[in-house]
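FYI - complex with S-adenosylmethionine, inputs then prediction.
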Amino acid sequence: MFDKSKRQINYLRLSITDHCNLKCQYCLPEKVTKFHNNSDLLKSDEIEKIVKAFSLIGIKKIRITGGEPCVRSDFLDILKKIHQINGIDKIAITTNGFKLLENIDLFKANGLNRINISLDSLNPKKYNEITRGGDFHTVFESIKKACLKNFEKVRLNVVIMKDVNDDEIFDFVNLTKNLNIGVRFIELMPIGEGKKFTSVKNSEVLSLIKKHYILEKHNNLETDGPANYYKINGFLGEIGFISPLSNRFCDKCNRVRVTSEGFLKLCLHYNEGIDLIPYLKANVSTEDLAQIIEDAIYNKKPKEHQMDCIKSIEDIKKIETKGMNEIGG
Ligand code: SAM
């Protein structure tokens, strides 16, 4: 479907929980006091109905995210249900990788096409500090295993923070030498705990890398998101840059989000959208739900807004205050 700004919206980021087994310092506070009760999270059959409705309006790609999606004990059931829905041809996950090692074959057999794994340090001690307890070796084994399993794409999400991991940029670049992986540098957004850290502009990361390597723009890569990809001659993988701060991409936005509590969120940065729960509780038909969703998406923030259209107190009230674990990234 197309919104009012004539952008094609074909991608849904679906958060299935706000709970996480890690507490990355820029994402979650040390003492998380407000995880939602499990009973408030969308049930797997509600997720199925929502995704069916989205497929009716032309959504083709679903990214399952969170919190950590794999902490849900019914994750496999959710994956299977989404896999069986006509019209959904890409199922991706964003995960911290902890539950991948033992489940990867099962996930692949049940329709998972693409995996993004978040990894902000290649130094086990630093990784443990950033994540407040994560074991680097478990995640890295999962990454290596995923790369051997013929997924359409395996990518790393790396958020570079000044004086935290900006000394590891080349270590991440060098990973792409022997691993067929996309390493994506993501600019830290000043959302939630992210405000406590200093982001590094991707233009700086790019020019640093260019001092040592010749980067070729990777044009023949099918991208359905805001990343710009480059390759180093002879390297197996590629490097991507997602720059929400320095290069806003509202004009190319192709996505909406549904939170783990069933709120259809139209823009990452604003709390505008609609609560789908009353419609689910009223047991509206999938077709009617699709119409409700379509009408809401049509009124997505215009492509020109670039987050600069905050002019009044009313606008400020609409700015998103949820943490990334609630939004799903
Ligand atoms: N638990 C999963 C994971 O670790 O990938 C999925 C949820 S996590 C919130 C999704 C992505 O959001 C991660 O790649 C994380 O690095 C990113 N993220 C969290 N806070 C961020 C921020 N303030 N700015 C940019 N990216 C952020």
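Residues 20, 26-27, 65-66, 68, 94-96, 118, 157, 159, 186, 188-189, 191, 194, 324-325, 328-329 surround S-adenosylmethionine (CB under 6 Å). The chain has a mean pLDDT of 92.
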